[in-house]
Amino acid sequence: MFTRFQAGLRRHFKLAAAGVLLACALPLVAQAQKKYDPGASDTEIKIGSLSPYSGPASAYGTAGKAMAAYFDRLNAAGGIKGRKINFLALDDAYNPAKSVEQTRKLVEQDEVLLMFASLGTAQNMAVQRYLTAKKIPQLFVNTGATRFGDPKNFPWTMGWQPTYQAEARAYAQHILATKPNARIAVLMQNDDFGKDFMKGFTDALGDKAKTQIVQHLTYEVTDPTIDSQMVTFKSSGADVFFNISTPKFAAQAIRKAAELGWKPTHYLVSVSQSLSSVLKPAGLDNATGVISSTYLLAPSDPAAKGVKEVAEYVAVMKQYYPAGDPEDTLNVLGYSVAATLAQVLRQAGDNLTRENIMKQAASLNFTPPGLYPGIEVKTGPDDFYPIEKKVLQRFNGKDYEAFGGLYGG
Q1: Cβ neighbours of residue 245 under 8 Å, at least 6 residues apart?
Q2: Domains delineated in the chain
Q3: In sequence order, what are the residues at sequence separation of 6 or more whose Cβ sits closer than 8 angstroms to the Cβ of residue 83?
Q4: pLDDT, mean of residues 168-193
């Protein structure tokens, strides 16, 4: 039987041991504490985004609605670690001045955690320095401008889709391989979006650019039509047409070329490849033979057959965005980029600070639903270009058909 002294000694050691265990556990408790910046809490994550739901580029607005559909489905399933996504999507009408106004509202009044997938080159440029100064993530901007992959100068900004220069190089390489003596006409939107494409195209053509590009005309996004440019192109004798335009003008160009009886080999930038927003308004027969490129997998593509994620995408669109066309690649884009953000937020865990959001965005090795087979999202601290591969495709009058191998990467 223990003496009173022995019993007291045992109690002393037990208390001492408990104290040691508690002291050891305190750092772990501190480590496990949740960290939040404005826009994040135990129950929600506020995400800001801008799209042109009105104005001359309103066809792009459907991508924002597809993002909302993804987040609605995610929230219905419980959100991310119990936190619902509060997706605050505003209209900037494709007007950079409006982009500044709406971004400031989202940051200063709504206090979003980050800006996500806002659309347009000039529009994102207009707010880039402001967001950088505020140290607010400008994540997965919805433009392929090369300048949005510069972690040294803009560590708070990251693109998502392949760059416009890389896409243009793919078209130029295909022209050089298939029509080495081509006479090329170029229609270009007169802004940084158009200039980025033009640089990649001329760089890839090299010395041949001076002789092969026989006509290069621009338009302003506020112009009513590009009919006069199309008439000039036909008169130039060009047999290849590189169409660097946004949806409204892309549809006009396809339709006008048919009216004029001009039948060049037509390369159309991927931002305007949409069946529902561009090819159908232009006339599917008129668009037959158009060559574009993609990194996205539309449900009708033969490569999508039997892919579980594609079926899930179609089901989500049907339930949460029934007015949207699942075949529209703008909707595939919206859904896929939203899934990429969800992955970043999952990786961030309970450390929902802006700094950690950018850290996680810069450490992705992930294949979101909606990407073409063989294409993935990969980033690193010095690599802010998440997607770097594309495949060429040709419109057959009903659907796009991919051909050749992957470009880029």
Answers
A1: 187, 188, 189, 219, 226, 253, 269, 272
A2: 44-162+302-388 (3.40.50.2300), 164-294 (3.40.50.2300)
A3: 40, 41, 42, 43, 44, 45
A4: 96
Report, in angstroms and rounded to the nearest whole number, the Rg of the chain calculated over CA atoms.
26
User: What is the total residue count of the chain?
Assistant: 409
**Mean pLDDT value of segment 204-232:** 97
Strand partners, 50: 90
Cβ-Cβ contacts under 8 Å for 166 (sequence gap 6 or more): 144, 200, 388, 390, 407, 408
What is the rounded distance in angstroms from the CA atom of residue 187 to the CA atom of residue 220?
Answer: 11
The pLDDT of residue 11 is: 54
The full 3-state SS of the chain, as one line of letters, equals CCCHHHHHHHHHHHHHHHHHHHHHHHHHHHHHCCEECCCECCCEEEEEEEECCCCCCHHHHHHHHHHHHHHHHHHHCCCECCEEEEEEEEECCCCHHHHHHHHHHHHHHCCCCEEECCECHHHHHHHHHHHHHHCCCEECCECCCHHHCCCCCCCCEECCCCCHHHHHHHHHHHHHHHCCCCCEEEEEECCHHHHHHHHHHHHHHHHHHHHHEEEEEEECCCCCCCHHHHHHHHHHCCCEEEEECCHHHHHHHHHHHHHHCCCCEEEECHHHCCHHHHHHHHCHHHHCCCEEEECECCCCCHHHCCCHHHHHHHHHHHHHCCCCCCCCHHHHHHHHHHHHHHHHHHHHCCEECHHHHHHHHCCCEECCCCECCCCCEECECCECCCCCEEEEEEECCCCEEEEEEEEEC
- Cβ contact 51:61 at 8 Å: yes
Indicate the pTM of the whole model: 0.83
pLDDT in tens, 104-141: 999 999 999 999 999 999 999 999 999 999 999 999 99
Phi, psi of 399 (to 5 degrees): -140, 170
> 184 φ, ψ to 5°?
-110, 130
Note the maximum CA span of the chain: 112
